[in-house]
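My main concern about presentation is that the manuscript never shows what a single data entry looks like. For the editor and my fellow referees, an illustration may be useful. For illustration, here is how one protein appears when written out as sequence plus C-alpha cells:

***
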Amino acid sequence: MPISTASHSAPPSAMLSKPPAAAMLPLLLVFLCGITVGALAMSFFHNTLHKPRTVTAVESWNKETVLKWKKELNLREGQQRELETTLDDFAKYYDNVLADGKTRIMGILDDEQKRKFEHMLLEHRKP
C-alpha cells in the first residue's frame, strides 16, 4: 500500500493565505525593534538636542567637574588647566554637532515643514 502525502499537506493556495506563526515572529521582532529605536531617537531628540543650554550652566558644570576631579585625582595646576581646556573644547564641539544636526534636518524639509519644525522647537523650549 503506497503512502500518500497528499492528505498531510495543504494546497498551495492555503499555504499562501495564512503564514505560519514561525514566519511572523521575526517580522514582529523587527517591528518592535523599530518602534523601540524610534522611541529612543525621539526621546534623545526632544530631551537633548533642543533643550536650551546657557553658557553659565555649562561653565558651572565644568567648574564643578574640574574641582571634583582635581581633588579626587590630585591634579597638578597644569593638568587642571588642560582639563578645563578639554572640557571647554568638548562643550563647543557638542554645540557644533547639535547645530549641524539642526541644519541637516532643515535641509531635508520643505518650507511648510521648516515652519512647523521651528514652531515645535520653540514649544519644546518653553518651561
